[in-house]
Amino acid sequence: AATKLASAEKLMYFCTDQLGLEQDFEQKQMPDGKLPVDGFLLCVDVSRGMNRNFDEQLKFVSNLYNQLAKTKKPAVVVLTKCDEGVERYIRDAHAFALGKKNLQVVETSARSNVNVELAFGTLLQLLDRSRGKAKIVPYFEALKQQSQQIAAAKDKYEWLVGRIVKSHHEAWPGVCRKMQAAPEFQDYVYLEGTPKAKKLFLQHVQRLKQEHVERRRRAYLALLPQALDALVPDLDEIDHLSLAKAEKLLEAKPDFHKWFVVLDETPWDGHADRLDGERIPFDLLETPAAEQLYEAHLEKLRNERKRAEVRRAFRDNLESSPFVTPGKPWEEARSFIMNDDFYLWLDESVYVDIYGKHQKQLIDRAKEDFQELLLEYSELFYELELDAKPSKEKMGVIQEVLGEEQRFKALQKLQAERDALVLKHIHFVYHPTKETCPSCGACVDARVEQLLGARLARPAERQHRNALAEPGADRINLVILGKDGLARELANEIRALCTSDDKYVLEGKVYELALRPIEGNVRLPVNAFHTPTFQPHGCLCLYNSKESLSYVAESIEKSREGSAGRRDGHAAAAAAPLPLTLVLVNKRGEGGGETLQSLIQQGQQVASKLQCVFLDPGIGYGRNINEKQIGQVLKGLLDAKRGLSLAVGAAPGPREAAEGAELRVVMCLMCGDPAGADEVLLPLLQAQPCRVVGSGAVLLD
Predict the structure, then answer these.
(1) How far apart are CA 462 and CA 203, in angstroms?
(2) Mean pLDDT for the chain?
(3) Taking the alpha carbons of 472, 474, 480, 486 in that order, is the dihedral positive or negative?
(4) Which pLDDT does position 624 carry in this prediction?
(5) What Pfam families does the record point to (predicted)?
(6) Which end of the chain is more exposed for a tag (fewer CB within 10 A), N or C?
(7) What is the DSSP secondary structure assignment for residue 322, as one 8-state letter?
(8) Comparing 514 with 693, which gets the higher pLDDT?
(9) What integer is the mean pLDDT of 97-107?
(10) Are strands 663-667 and 697-700 parallel, antiparallel or unpaired?
């Protein structure tokens, strides 16, 4: 209870942690070794002590206070260790203070740093009355406020650590130096101390390491199914093996080290930083996640085998089913060949694809059989006129004779193809060439020619010839416009000139030919020139009377009107005028008062109006359009597609006759783009003096 102390050269210590390390901290000595005492903090331990009687302790405190009161210095009772305080002890201490005049009590905990500053602040206010009176807060309320303050400071400090520390390789000393000036670091260290700040840092680093290991683990597990597919793709090899037994099998595979790495020290996650990431640690297979992936691999192989078996069963079902005939649509055959098991394993689209391929085989086989049937009944075709299409009566006789044959009935749902085969056979009977041969590429004449060419040609020529022989070089889409069966009949005649796979041979080159016969109102979608799957390159217009000629002219006008107003996805294709050819064909034996000459004149007038080519029949009125004329039309279409179709005027005009040194060259209307003639011709004729006369016309020396 002394109020004056004297102790020369004594240091004032702030913390017991500094004992023995005084030189490492700032040193503060008592001034002149003397220190006057201005007030007292009377500390009372309210925790439960070993072999200590609190009542005896309180008597000692009471006697001590009596001594302090004699000094006339202010005093404050400080209850310490309230974090472990006994409630009765705290009540008794408060009761002791109430019996004294103006004796204040502050509940503290140095360990939790609760109300420590309040105790000194309360004493300071008693010494200096000019200071505001400090509000004394009970321990538990102060602890709550302290906890909230610490939680807020902790959140800010953790945010700071997360922003600065991005790698689990960071060390505390370096990070501590980086954070030293940050207020978030300073506040938390002030409240909780450096050890707890370091502990939170280490927890963050450990979390980063775990996240790094987890990323690696997910990457390895994502790679494992590929490794299993590469090393054990055969179900028979692993069907009854556990993962432990399968591991030995994997190690024996030649490509094992391409997919896996065997570590000397396990587990792998302790060495995650040293792994390359390209190969899977082999001990990862011992984890439950790897075992699940192995089971999934087995299940996938079993399902693939089952699906393959279902495909085979479905094909076998198609082969054995009497309800699957050539040309039968899937919708008609589905109910006879599908069962519930099929729907369990594969989508219907897969079965439709298999059915389509099977149908193609059936149709090809049926066509071959029908071709053999036609060869067996060759006598049916001897009495036909050369280059003439058989009459309906003759076709009826042919069908009646062949009708009882199963090979004829097999194409019952493909009557158009069957009629085309008959016409093609007739054409072959009277024009037996390698182009019209039913055997197509297997024709002996063609094979002999190929063999001789390959033997005799030089290597460079052989390479060039092989390049020209490649399939799929070009395609021709042709609309055939006619009335009263004219379009369909001509389409069948053209198909008869094609090979079995709808290829047309023109000047030694094979083209893919697609025909669209139209005989109705062209404004209806079913009779439209352009469809989503068919973009025509030209149109062949047929007529054999004044009525059919009027139908052609009206249909072309309607089609052009529709193309001009079109706004759908085919607008670009329909924008350019379609190349047209107008043809006068056989009247099929009808009498009529119209002469050949009048029909030709009317056709020429319509052709001039439509700005299209008119094909003069040239040889007698009793003939249809012949093979040569068809080839001429198709060749014009090909030239038009290339933008180089030209027609040379046959007779010189007055200007040419007068000057005698000029020839008029006009772009063929089959091109369908007269306005582009100048762009096509001028570059070709740069070397010649020429001048433009009009759209699509050039004067050339």
Answers:
(1) 77
(2) 80
(3) negative
(4) 57
(5) FF_RHG35_4th (PF23083), Ras (PF00071), RhoGAP-FF1 (PF16512), RhoGAP_pG1_pG2 (PF19518)
(6) C
(7) T
(8) 514
(9) 91
(10) antiparallel
* Distances 652 to 278, 567, 659 between C-alpha atoms, Å: 81, 44, 10
- Whole-prediction pTM: 0.47
Helix orientation angle between 194-231 and 139-164, rounded to the nearest 10 degrees: 50
Bond from prior residue into 267 cis (ω within 30 degrees of 0): yes
pLDDT digits (tens, 9 = 90+) for 289-310: 999 999 999 999 999 999 898 8
Q: Which residues are paired to 615 by β-bridges?
A: 583
Q: What is the pLDDT of residue 596?
A: 80
Proportion of the chain in helix, strand, coil states, percent, rounded to 5: 55, 10, 30
Sequential DSSP letters for 7-35: -TTPBPPS-GGGTT-GGGS---B-GGGEE
**Per-residue pLDDT, 159:** 95
**DSSP code for 440:** G
CATH 3.40.50.300 domain position(s) in the chain = 4-146, 475-560+577-645
The residue whose two tokens read 């009708």 is: 403
Taking the C-alpha atoms of residue 493 and residue 495, their distance in angstroms, rounded to an integer, is: 5
Please compute the mean of the pLDDT values over residues 353-362 and round it to a whole number: 91
| Cβ-proximal residues to 166 (8 Å cutoff; 6+ apart), any chain | 208
Taking the C-alpha atoms of residue 301 and residue 241, their distance in angstroms, rounded to an integer, is 14
Residue 685 CB neighbours (<10 A): 14
Over the stretch 526-551, which tens digit does the pLDDT of each residue have?
A: 788 888 888 888 899 998 888 999 99
Residues 6+ apart with CB under 8 A from 622: 586
Class of the CATH-defined domain 475-560+577-645 = alpha beta
Say yes or no: domain 4-146 is CATH 3.40.50.300.
yes
Q: What is the percent of the chain with per-residue pLDDT over 90, rounded to a whole number?
A: 30
349 by Cβ neighbours in 10 Å (0-12 / 13-18 / 19+) ranks as exposed
Specify the amino acid at residue 684: L
Distances (CA, A) of 164 to 71, 160, 451, 514: 56, 6, 79, 71
- CB half-sphere exposure, 559, CA atoms < 13 A: 29
Question: Among 171-180, 387-396, 589-598, where is mean pLDDT lowest?
Answer: 589-598
Q: Where are the alpha helices (DSSP H) in 537-647?
A: 546-564, 571-575, 596-610, 627-642
pLDDT tens string 584-597: 886 544 444 557 88
Residues 6 or more apart in contact with residue 693 via CB below 8 angstroms: 664, 699
Q: Are strands 580-584 and 613-615 parallel, antiparallel or unpaired?
A: parallel
Instruction: At 57, list the tokens.
Output: 């302790």
What is the spatial distance between Cα 563 and Cα 559, in angstroms, rounded to a whole number? 6
